C-alpha cells in the first residue's frame, strides 16, 4: 500500500466514517428514518475494521523500516 492510499484510508477511518455515523444518527432521529441504529452500527463496524487493518499495516511497515 502506498503512502497516499494509506493517508486516504486513515482519513476515512478516523474522520469520514465517524462523521457519517454522527450525521446518519442525527438525521435518523430527526426524520424518523427506519433502521437508523443498524445503519450507524454498520458504519461503526466498518470504521473499526478499517482502523484495525490500517494499524496492522502501519506496524508491519514500521517493523520493516526498523522504526517503532
Structure explained in plain terms:
The chain is mostly helical and 68 residues long. It has 2 helices and no strands. It has one domain. Helix 1 packs antiparallel against helix 2.
Main attributes of the structure:
68 residues, 2 helices, mainly alpha
- How many structurally independent domains? 1
Largest sheet: none
Distance between the termini: 19 Å
Query: Unreliable segments (pLDDT under 50, ≥5 consecutive)?
Result: none
Query: How much is the radius of gyration in Å?
Result: 15 Å
- Classify the secondary structure makeup into a structural class: mainly alpha
Share of helix among residues? over 70%
Written as H for each helix and E for each strand, in order along the chain, the element string is HH
Strand coverage percent:
under 5%
**What is the overall number of helices?**
2
Q: What is the residue-averaged pLDDT?
A: 94
Number of strands: 0
From the spread of the alpha carbons, the general shape counts as elongated
Secondary structure layout:
Layout: H1 3-31, H2 36-65
In short:
With 68 residues, the protein is an all-alpha fold.
